[in-house]
């Protein structure tokens, strides 16, 4: 038990360190890429990513997660899983290739057809990437995975910047993302030092297929949930407005999109190893929940408070319309993150249907709210997340705590201190910004409010919730 937690802690350290290096570099480069592209370019990219993400979610068929939970894993079983993955991916590649023209016609964007056909190439590499990635995760070998991710991200970011500077527009992001997928597939396989060949007879894979099908359905609906606003808004908003909303949403969820895979990919194997010890997995989960929420709430609420200065300084005046949508969406991100923390625990405990139930309800609620809000523009769309996010968070909380036997009240009590302290910090910084107006240079105002926010949050937490403050100070990776 202690060995598992020790290996998990080491894996998390390596993954976090290399992921931070990767994200700092890619975030820095992406800010320059945005300056070379137009809102219209991001409107096209948003639609392409939505279609591709839905298809790629099906590509793994949840079989990678089944490999991690398999008690007796032999070479033949691995080859059978690879054979299934290849069949799924070839089917998806053909479907995307031949449906590309219809999708382009639906969105009245002729460029989409060729772009979707090019991105279908990713399906040829996906089976080996999925297989190798999850076999490395099973061994808790996240250090090697993180090195490959870092290398691929750096090369992909530089490729995107070079192509954007050369005037390639939306193609710069499309081709860079494709290159990253290919590099990861090759890198994971090389690190594993074993090139498996597929087996095309599938006896004995029934349980894995059933488990994977549930996770695939959940993942597909989750991807649809993450992109439902773009799919709906594409019918109501002009391409320029859609691009503004897409960039605001992308920037708001970028830290979440990068952090959650890090947490989940390390937490899932750990929970799977201790899933039969109810008291231990509950203790570990609650500790992780407290630590992540005490840092995530001030981060995102602080970003929302300084968004105006940051956007105008970094992205320029042409993205001014993205400021309010960005602020509104940022306020919802900590609850999204808190909801997603249950995902690896539910999978490890053998309740993959929990995610399916939760995401189905979330998708339905969000689709209705977005459909009602979209005709009124990007600001109302962004504000609609303030309504839907607390609803699907509370639903997920009730569902997951009941199945994991973790008290509902324990999670609410853990959530309250950082939420209250962060909200107070946000209000005070926004008030300061209103009072200062244009009297202070924008760069200096940004620096002042960042320092002020950190001091305010720590002070409020120390005065009102000293135990949480002390626990956060003692946190060690």
Automatic annotation (TrEMBL):
Major site of localization recorded for this protein: membrane
Superkingdom of this protein's organism: Bacteria
Membrane topology label: Multi-pass membrane protein
Gene Ontology CC annotation, any one: plasma membrane
The keyword Ligase is annotated on this UniProt entry: no
Keywords: Cell membrane, Membrane, Transmembrane, Transmembrane helix
CDD domains: MATE_tuaB_like
Pfam families: Polysacc_synt_3 (PF13440)
Localization in the cell: Cell membrane
Transmembrane segments: 16-37, 43-68, 80-98, 118-136, 148-165, 211-236, 242-263, 284-304, 324-343, 355-374, 380-399, 411-431, 443-465
InterPro entries linked: Poly_Biosynth_Transport
Record-stated family: Belongs to the polysaccharide synthase family.
Protein name: Polysaccharide transporter, PST family
Organism: Rheinheimera nanhaiensis E407-8
């Amino acid at each position: 038990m202690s060995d598992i937690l020790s290996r998990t802690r080491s894996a998390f350290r390596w993954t976090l360190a290399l992921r931070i290096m990767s994200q700092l570099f890619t975030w820095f480069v992406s800010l320059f890429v945005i300056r070379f592209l137009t809102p219209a370019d991001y409107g096209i990219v948003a639609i392409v990513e939505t279609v591709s993400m839905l298809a790629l979610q099906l590509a793994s068929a949840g079989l990678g997660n089944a490999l991690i939970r398999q008690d007796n894993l032999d070479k033949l079983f691995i080859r059978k899983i690879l054979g299934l993955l290849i069949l799924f991916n070839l089917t998806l590649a053909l479907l995307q290739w031949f449906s590309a023209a219809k999708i382009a016609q639906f969105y009245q964007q002729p460029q989409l057809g060729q772009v979707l056909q090019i991105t279908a190439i990713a399906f040829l590499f996906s089976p080996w990437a999925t297989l190798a990635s999850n076999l490395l995760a099973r061994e808790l070998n996240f250090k090697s995975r993180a090195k490959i991710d870092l290398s691929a991200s750096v090369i992909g970011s530089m490729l995107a910047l070079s192509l954007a500077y050369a005037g390639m527009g939306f193609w710069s992001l499309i081709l860079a993302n494709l290159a990253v997928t290919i590099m990861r597939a090759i890198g994971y396989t090389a690190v594993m030092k074993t090139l498996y060949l597929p087996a095309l007879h599938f006896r004995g894979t029934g349980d894995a297929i059933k488990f994977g099908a549930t996770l695939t359905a959940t993942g597909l609906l989750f991807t649809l949930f993450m992109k439902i606003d773009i799919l709906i808004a594409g019918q109501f908003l002009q391409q320029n407005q859609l691009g503004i909303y897409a960039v605001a949403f992308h920037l708001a969820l970028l830290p979440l999109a990068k952090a959650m895979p890090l947490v989940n990919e390390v937490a899932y194997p750990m929970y799977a190893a201790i899933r039969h010890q109810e008291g231990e997995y509950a203790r570990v989960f609650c500790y992780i929940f407290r630590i992540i929420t005490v840092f995530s709430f001030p981060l995102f609420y602080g970003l929302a408070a300084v968004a105006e200065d940051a956007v105008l300084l970094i992205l320029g005046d042409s993205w001014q319309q993205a400021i309010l949508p960005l602020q509104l969406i940022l306020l919802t991100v900590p609850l999204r993150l808190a909801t997603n923390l249950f995902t690896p625990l539910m999978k490890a405990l053998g309740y993959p249907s929990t995610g399916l139930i939760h995401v189905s309800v979330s998708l339905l609620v969000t689709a209705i709210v977005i459909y009602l809000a979209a005709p009124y523009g990007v600001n109302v769309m962004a504000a609609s997340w303030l309504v839907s996010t607390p609803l699907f968070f509370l639903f997920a909380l009730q569902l997951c705590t009941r199945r994991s036997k973790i008290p509902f009240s324990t999670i609410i009590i853990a959530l309250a201190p950082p939420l209250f302290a962060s909200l107070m910090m946000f209000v005070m910084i926004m008030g300061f910004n209103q009072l200062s107006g244009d009297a202070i240079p924008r760069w200096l105002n940004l620096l002042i409010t960042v320092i002020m926010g950190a001091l305010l949050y720590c002070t409020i937490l120390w005065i009102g919730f000293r135990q949480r403050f002390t626990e956060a100070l003692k946190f060690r990776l």
